[in-house]
Amino acid sequence: MASARTAKEERRHQSAGGAAPTRDQRSDELAGELRLSVARLARRLRQQDQTDMGPTLTSALASVARHGAPSHGELAGMEGLSAPTITSIVDKLAARGFVRREADPADRRVTRVHATPEGVAALESMRTRRTEWLEAQLRSLPPRDLDRLAAAAEVLRRLAEAPPETGEEEGG
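Given the sequence above, the corresponding structure tokens read:
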């Protein structure tokens, strides 16, 4: 019994004959290149933080600072993590003095997580170092590359803001 090819494999097979790649083939190739480049750039930016927090703690702290005072459950949902994992993360952030817990005045069974001034300052410091590093990299580029990046930045922003996939399969 022959194995069925995925749509992506079929497009790759069709382009092997030397014909110009189709839009789907170009998209497939570009997706791989972008994924790798964006991941590497994100890693380089995180390396500028000069902290030992790591991306999970940093993201959770940023979510707390951005969303005010989420409950543990709300924060877990924002971060896509389990309740026990978010409790551990909040414990670590609290031990560093970056967040504090407080009972919800409307429902004392709910604990709210607040960013402390030290936590906000740590985030600002990380963001500043990341931005300064990226600015230095951009200053080394020729004007044509800067123009291309400016155009690409808008497209990347739209991709980043796209709604999550619904899980529906292509082609039924």
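The beta strands are 99-104, 107-115. Try to locate this feature in the token string yourself.
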